[in-house]
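Q: What residues go here?
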């Protein structure tokens, strides 16, 4: 599903696949990460087994890589992909939580509005 998302990076500078970076960001946010630094710290703490399962390899992405990619991903396309996938599989509460994650790309205020 996330493989359909356009990668904003030039192929020349790609060390980690976009799907892997998004998977790490989603998992970290669901685990309580609230900033790019927290996502990077959560990622750095992963065991080698989990890193392999997330297709990260030996080196984890840096905070700047995570931030750069998440700020440049097409938020509308990501929202459409995630919403379509969730509509078929998840209750409304989970849909709202992941839509909150997608709002990190466009602004925290939208995410805060979902919590109230």
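A:
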């Amino acid at each position: 599903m996330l493989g359909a998302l356009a990668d904003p990076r030039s192929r020349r500078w790609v060390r980690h696949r976009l799907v892997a970076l998004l998977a790490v960001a989603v998992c970290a946010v669901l685990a309580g990460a609230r900033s790019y630094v927290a996502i990077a710290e959560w990622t750095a703490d992963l065991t080698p087994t989990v890193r392999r399962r997330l297709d990260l390899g030996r080196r984890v992405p840096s905070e700047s890589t995570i931030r750069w990619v998440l700020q440049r991903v097409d938020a509308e396309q990501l929202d459409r992909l995630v919403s379509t996938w969730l509509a078929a599989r998840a209750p409304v509460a989970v849909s709202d939580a992941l839509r909150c994650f997608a709002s990190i790309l466009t602004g925290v205020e939208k995410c805060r509005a979902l919590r109230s």
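A: Context that may help when evaluating the design: The chain has seven helices and no strands. Residues 112-116 have pLDDT under 50 and may be disordered.
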